[in-house]
Amino acid sequence: MKNTSSRILLVDDEESNLDVLVECLRDEPYELVQAHNGEEALAQLQQDRQGFHAMVLDRMMPGMSGLDLLSHMKKDEHLQWLPVVMQTAAGSPQEIGEGIEAGVFFYLIKPFDQLLLLRIVSAAVEEGLKWKRIFRNLSQQSQIIELLQQGRFHVRTMEEAYDLAFLLGRACPNSEKVVFGLNELLMNGVEHGNLGIGFDEKTALQASGTWEEEIQHRVGLPEYVHKVVDVQFERYLDCIQVTITDQGSGFDWRKYEQINPDRILESHGRGIAMAKALSFSRVEYRGKGNQVVCVIKTDLPTGEECISMVSETPRTAHELERA
Questions:
Q1: Which superfamily is assigned to 147-322 in CATH?
Q2: Are 36 and 69 in contact (CB under 8 A)?
Q3: Under a CB-based contact definition with an 8 Å cutoff, are residues 139 and 166 in contact?
Q4: What is the architecture, at CATH level 2, of domain 6-137?
Q5: Three-class SS of residue 292?
Q6: Where are the domains of the chain?
Q7: What is d(CA 259, CA 18) in angstroms, rounded to the nearest whole number?
Q8: CA gap 183, 177 in Å, rounded
Q9: Environment class of 82 (CB within 10 Å of its CB; exposed 0-12, middle 13-18, buried 19+)
Q10: I need a surface site. Which of 43, 82, 246, 313 has the fewest CB within 10 A?
Q11: What is the pLDDT along the chain (323 residues), one digit of tens a residue?
C-alpha cells in the first residue's frame, strides 16, 4: 500500500533532533507535523481534525515524558490505536517492556541511520493505515453478523484472511481491536504456515521489494494451492473463542509472543505480540504451533470472572445453566 498523504507527528524537545528527523523524511510521501514537548503533542493529537497515521516520539523529555504522553493516549479511544515509534538511547529489555506496556511496538535506538529510520517509520505508517482502514470498513459493515453463534470457515489467500477478519471481528465486542488481531494471526497462517515463508526469508523479500509478488506466486503453486487455514468461531455465554489452524509444519511461537530486543529494528515480526497485547483476553498456541486459540471476553457484570479464562474448555450457555 502506498503511503501517500500519510501524516506523522514528530515529538522531541530538542530542536536539532527534530531537524534531523525532518531532513531524513522530507523526500518521503509524508506530511510532517512537529511538537516540541509532550503537552504540545497531546494538544495536537486531540485537536487536529485530520488525524495522524503514526508518531515518532522521544522517550525522555522534561515535563510530560514520552511514557506520560502514551499514558494519556491509552485512555483515549481515538488515540490508543496510533502506532508509535519510540526513540530511546538504549534498547534494554526493561525499557522495551515498559514501552510495550504503554503500547509501543516500534523502536529507534539513538544514534540511528536514515535507512533504519525510513524502514521503521514506513512499517509504523503501514500499521496506521491498517487501523484507519479497519475503522472505515467497520462503519460500513452490517450489524447482522453480531447474531453469529457458531461457524467454520476456510481461507487460502491474504485477501480472504483480511475479509474473514472483518466478518468475525464485527461479531465481537471491541470490534476494531479484534479485527486487527485476527487479521495478523490469519495472515500468519497463510503466509508463514501454509506458504512456508519464514522470518529471515520475509526480511529478504521485503528488502528486495518482492514480498507481495512472492505471496501471489506461491498461492498458485501445486504444492500450496489446496492448503487452507481452518477457522472455527464459537460463541459461549462468557466469551467468544476463535480457533485458527493452518496446514504448515508449525514454528516456535514463543520467540514471537514478546517483542525481542534482537528484532526491534526489523520492520516485521510484531504481529503475534501485538495481537496478544491489544486484541484478545488470551492467546494460546497448541501442538507444534500451527493452531492458535484466541479468546475474547464478552460483557460480564463487574467482579464476575470469565469462565473460559479459568477452565480448559469454555462452557456453553446450557452447560452453565446446569452448573
A1: Histidine kinase-like ATPase, C-terminal domain (3.30.565.10)
A2: no
A3: no
A4: 3-Layer(aba) Sandwich (3.40)
A5: strand
A6: 6-137, 147-322
A7: 27
A8: 10
A9: buried
A10: 313
A11: 444 579 999 999 999 999 999 999 989 999 999 999 999 999 999 998 888 999 999 988 899 999 899 999 988 888 888 999 988 776 666 777 677 777 788 888 877 888 889 989 998 999 888 888 887 777 666 567 778 899 999 999 999 999 999 899 988 988 888 999 999 999 999 999 999 999 999 989 988 889 999 999 999 999 999 999 999 999 998 899 999 999 999 999 998 888 776 677 777 888 898 899 889 999 999 999 999 999 999 865 444 445 444 344 444 444 434 44
Torsion of CA 254, 167, 122, 202, to 10 degrees: 50
Residue 211 C-alpha cell reads as 514480498
Query: Residue 155 is placed in which grid cell?
Result: 481461507
- Nearest-angstrom CA–CA distance, 183 and 161: 6
Residue type for position 84:
V
Q: Would the pTM of this model clear 0.85, i.e. be above it? A: no
Tell the residue number behind the cell numbers 493516549, with chain if given.
73
Beta strands in the chain (DSSP E): 6-11, 30-35, 54-58, 84-88, 106-109, 150-155, 229-235, 239-245, 282-286, 291-297
153 pairs with which residues across the strands?
Answer: 231
